[in-house]
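Q: Please design a sequence for this.
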């Protein structure tokens, strides 16, 4: 049985540059752990596993990164997008647009309501983001898990 490939999209640079946090890596690792535990027919495609160190001498160009990540999205079955600070991430906006243009279902989640350290719900003002997502989970503490359960129950069963 083949596995459903879930691409993990979301802002990275904003957190590193502005919040000095590993949150972009942490939530993706949580997804990988959840899938390893509960998603026997699911596989996470974590872009942080490819180019997490932009200063690495192995990377030849931004074009290389862009082409690889768009290729990975073109091969995925579902795009899971963290909507926090999406409007601060050109890459994430492009990933969502690309997935939508290729009829790849997009499931969004947003957990940081009223959180002054992270929370940025400006995605709510962007109809193109809202229209691109098949579903958006917004529970303050369980949105990520809720989105994974939804993907498992409705797309991967």
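A: Design:
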């Amino acid at each position: 049985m083949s596995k459903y490939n879930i691409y993990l999209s979301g802002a990275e640079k904003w957190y590193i540059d502005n919040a000095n946090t590993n949150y972009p890596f942490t939530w993706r690792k949580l997804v990988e752990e959840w899938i390893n535990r509960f998603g026997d027919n699911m596989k996470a495609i974590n872009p942080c596993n490819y180019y997490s160190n932009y200063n690495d001498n192995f990377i030849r160009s931004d074009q290389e990164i862009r082409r690889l990540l768009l290729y990975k999205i073109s091969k995925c079955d579902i795009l899971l997008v963290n909507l926090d600070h999406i409007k601060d991430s050109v890459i994430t906006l492009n990933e969502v647009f690309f997935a939508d243009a290729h009829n790849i279902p997009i499931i969004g989640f947003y957990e940081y309501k009223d959180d002054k350290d992270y929370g940025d719900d400006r995605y709510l003002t962007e109809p193109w983001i809202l229209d691109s997502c098949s579903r958006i989970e917004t529970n303050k503490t369980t949105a990520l898990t809720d989105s994974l359960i939804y993907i498992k129950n409705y797309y991967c069963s």
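Q: Thanks. Anything notable?
A: The chain has a mean pLDDT of 91. The chain has one domain: 4-156.
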